[in-house]
Design brief:
The protein is mostly beta strands. The protein has one domain (about 35-180). Helices cover about 10% and strands about 40% of the residues. It contains 1 helix and 12 strands. The protein has one helix spanning about 1-20, and strands at about 35, 45-55, 55-60, 65-75, 85-90, 90-100, 100-110, 115-120, 130, 140-145, 160-165, 175-180. The strands form 2 sheets. It has a 7-stranded antiparallel sheet, with no helix packed on it. A 5-stranded mixed sheet has the order 2-3-5-11-10, with no helix packed on it. The longest helix is centred in the N-terminal third of the chain and has 17 residues, at about 1-20. The radius of gyration is 21 Å and the shape is globular. The N and C termini lie far apart (about 60 Å). Mean pLDDT is about 80; it is low at about 10-20 and about 20-30.
Length: about 180
Amino acid sequence: MGLKVLFGAVTLCVSILCGCSTILMLKEQIVPVFDVDLSRSKEQGNRINFIRESEDLIFEVHSQGRVGEATISLIRGTWASKVCFRFYLHGLESFSVNNGAFVLNTAILSYPPYSVLCEINAVEEEYRAILEETSSYWMPAKIVPIGKRTSKIPLQTGYIEVVVPKIVFGSKPENQHIKWIYFFR
């Protein structure tokens, strides 16, 4: 407590001596910390990088194999309001995220217009439903080109971006189990 008071007093004195009319106090930011466990992935060459853009959480998935899976555990902090995955693959046959209550699965077709299909499965139940784009559970996917080249499947440049809907994080799950299947197996 004494250091905070001392810091505040020094900040005030410096501001007065320098003629500053505004005192800026930096708000402490808690940067989320994640553990990415790829040990259940049967193939080598899979890796996931975490980056933060503004307030968004982005997981970049690089996979040399055909199938991959990982468990992403939140160690400290909170899930962002926007969480997305960028897959650097030639195509994405399937991507699923399991928050312990339900599993969302999305796929992007390998032919134009590269339509997206999405479904939900309740964990430990025989419930499965196809989702409409207007559903709060919809998990959109799109092809994002890099540079001036147009991207088509099989991707030579660019990535496939999947945005996980906010409802997945509503129960504040500590773990997210993800799986992906690469088109060209």
